Amino acid sequence: MAEAKPAVEIRKLSYTLDELEQVSGVGRSSIYQSISDLSLPAKKWNGRTIVLAADAEKFLHNLPPFVPGKRKGQRRVRNPAGRE
């Protein structure tokens, strides 16, 4: 009888932008913008843009923390009808 081989965990070393979008939950345009402003390092390989898994993890860990009640670009409207 043959011995069962132990399971080997295979971990991806890099992601395509489509894969990164799926595994990170970050939208495609945000990924492109982050690559463009150099906050997310990317590499080219055979005409494809890839992001190393370590760089993706570092990028995600360095995102600012969530602050409840505060939204980017949102202004507080006290009286939307213009009444006092």
Question: Can you put this structure into words, describing what you see?
Answer:
It contains 3 helices and 3 strands, in the order βααββα. It has a 3-stranded antiparallel beta sheet. The chain has a domain at 14-61: Arc Repressor Mutant, subunit A (Orthogonal Bundle), CATH 1.10.10. It has helices spanning 17-24, 28-36, 53-61, and strands spanning 14-16, 43-45, 48-52. By secondary structure, it is α+β, with helices and mostly antiparallel strands. The model has no long low-confidence stretch (mean pLDDT 88). The longest helix has 9 residues, at 28-36.
Note the main attributes of this structure:
alpha+beta; Arc Repressor Mutant, subunit A; 3-stranded antiparallel beta sheet; 3 helices; elongated
As residue ranges, the low-confidence spans are none
Total strand segments: 3
Overall mean pLDDT: 88
Helix count equals 3
Which word captures the global form? elongated
